Amino acid sequence: MAQQERAIRTRQVLLLAAASVFDEVGYDAASISEILSRSKMTKGALYFHFASKEALALGVIDAQTADLELPETGSKLQDLVCLTQSIARRLQTDVLLRAGVRLTVEERTLNLLGASQASPYAKWIEICGGLLTESKANGELLGHVQPAAVAELVVASFTGIQLVSQVYSRREDLAERLSAFWRYLLPGIAVPGVLPHLTTDPPAAG
Amino acid sequence: MAQQERAIRTRQVLLLAAASVFDEVGYDAASISEILSRSKMTKGALYFHFASKEALALGVIDAQTADLELPETGSKLQDLVCLTQSIARRLQTDVLLRAGVRLTVEERTLNLLGASQASPYAKWIEICGGLLTESKANGELLGHVQPAAVAELVVASFTGIQLVSQVYSRREDLAERLSAFWRYLLPGIAVPGVLPHLTTDPPAAG
């Protein structure tokens, strides 16, 4: 394995270990020594990649949107709905994503992250806004719909919906809650002719 | 002042002191001694009313929906929109409400609260669901709309919207974000004839 490749893998192992600890106990109670122990890496390796617990938290938050594959269904609006459903499913299994969302939601962490605090939401808003802008250009959205405002709304609502779903069912009912969100929201943003062609259900397990 | 009245006042002073500390530093970092010092009450008084920090947090969470006055505009759907806007405004000034929402959002606290963890959301969902059920009975909602599902959606979305607004503007843009949420959602739930009569703007400052 080339040296650079090994470094990337080491960084990823450290991020995953940090994510599993942040996901379980939150930022405050997470300890570097526990992260180190789960990663089975040396302290030197950890501090080479991440100068502090804060840097690890930032890395976990940034990883949320890394390597994101967008759906391609032929409709950008359907792509957006599918994207939210695929993130909902990943929240069940992907500890890196789940920890990133937990850190993003907790005020304590957002305060710590300081100037960069808005960035995790901003990245998601940019992705959703891009899909909505294309959707509008393709004639799928009603004339008065502002893609940027809807993108902010979708990201904020998703954040709250996954939070409530977590409290009630450890996110097991998240797909159904998201589906309801889209069923009630779509008539206010999509042109009537597009509505019958959209599905709000989660994609079949694959 | 009668003894019972004094006890109620003491309890309220303690709740407010606890709320101001939870609001600033969150549950974990809040100390009983700091709460005591802000309340200017004795340790005996505090432990008479609240057996533990957990009991204080529960008291703050429960206080969110206490003494809630519902708007009466003549339209139950308009009442619901106004309720969310009035809560948005109170989040700027009412430390008890703000601390309750912070505690409700943070996983650490929700885990601590154990069996009662779902209750803060449940109470809000019940209030919104009641308004929507009446709204439907009054013919304001589309036939397929399920008041309970919309109530869950509104509470969850509100939770996320206030969170994102807090990150971006310390909640200064919350009224505008809520207004956008309702503008895009209402066409999916209200009958067309009702829409022109609804306003999504925050009530004028009073």
From TrEMBL, chains A, B:
Where in this chain does the record put each HTH tetR-type domain?
8-68
Residue spans binding DNA: 31-50
Keyword field: DNA-binding, Transcription, Transcription regulation
Origin organism is Kribbella koreensis
Kindly give the PROSITE patterns that the UniProt entry links to this protein. Answer: HTH_TETR_2 (PS50977)
- Tell me the protein's name: ScbR family autoregulator-binding transcription factor
Secretion signal span: none
Q: Which Pfam families match?
A: TetR_C_45, TetR_N
Q: Which PANTHER family match?
A: HTH-TYPE TRANSCRIPTIONAL REGULATOR BETI (PTHR30055:SF234), HTH-TYPE TRANSCRIPTIONAL REGULATOR RUTR (PTHR30055)
